Each structure stands twice: as structure tokens, then as C-alpha cells.
UniProtKB/TrEMBL annotation:
<protein>
    <submittedName>
        <fullName>Helix-turn-helix domain-containing protein</fullName>
    </submittedName>
</protein>
<dbReference type="Pfam" id="PF12728">
    <property type="entry name" value="HTH_17"/>
</dbReference>
<dbReference type="InterPro" id="IPR009061">
    <property type="entry name" value="DNA-bd_dom_put_sf"/>
</dbReference>
<dbReference type="InterPro" id="IPR010093">
    <property type="entry name" value="SinI_DNA-bd"/>
</dbReference>
<feature type="domain" description="Helix-turn-helix">
    <location>
        <begin position="4"/>
        <end position="51"/>
    </location>
</feature>
<dbReference type="GO" id="GO:0003677">
    <property type="term" value="F:DNA binding"/>
</dbReference>
<dbReference type="InterPro" id="IPR041657">
    <property type="entry name" value="HTH_17"/>
</dbReference>
Length: 64
């Protein structure tokens, strides 16, 4: 089974605010799964986001 991260763990790995990680998840930029009342982020989805974001893109792939 795949490793699932909490929002706090993803926030710490990306070194962003809780608001930023919440916005990325809410806008489906980072995939997530809701388990009961909590959100979990698949580790592979977070890795994919990091690779796509740092692969020479402009960094403006999402809108605030």
C-alpha cells in the first residue's frame, strides 16, 4: 500500500504555509483523498507535483 501523508507532513516537506498546501489540494493541483474528516496526500502525488514544478516550468502553473 502506498504511503499517505497528512497535510502537515506535506506542508513541512514543501516548506510552505498551511494555506498554500490547502489551496494546492483544493484546486486539485496536488492529488488527495478524504478519509473520514481528514485529507491524505499520496506520496507519489506529492513527488509528481515536485517534479513537474521544478522541471524548468515557469512556476506559475497554478493561480491563487
Amino acid at each position: 500500500m502506498e504511503q499517505m501523508l497528512t497535510m502537515q507532513e506535506a506542508k513541512a516537506l514543501l516548506r510552505v504555509s498551511y494555506r498554500t498546501i490547502h489551496r494546492l489540494v483544493s484546486n486539485n493541483i496536488i492529488p488527495s483523498v478524504k478519509v473520514g474528516r481528514v485529507i491524505r496526500i499520496p506520496q507519489s502525488g506529492l513527488k509528481k507535483f515536485i517534479l513537474n514544478d521544478t522541471s524548468g516550468g515557469s512556476g506559475n502553473d497554478y493561480q491563487q
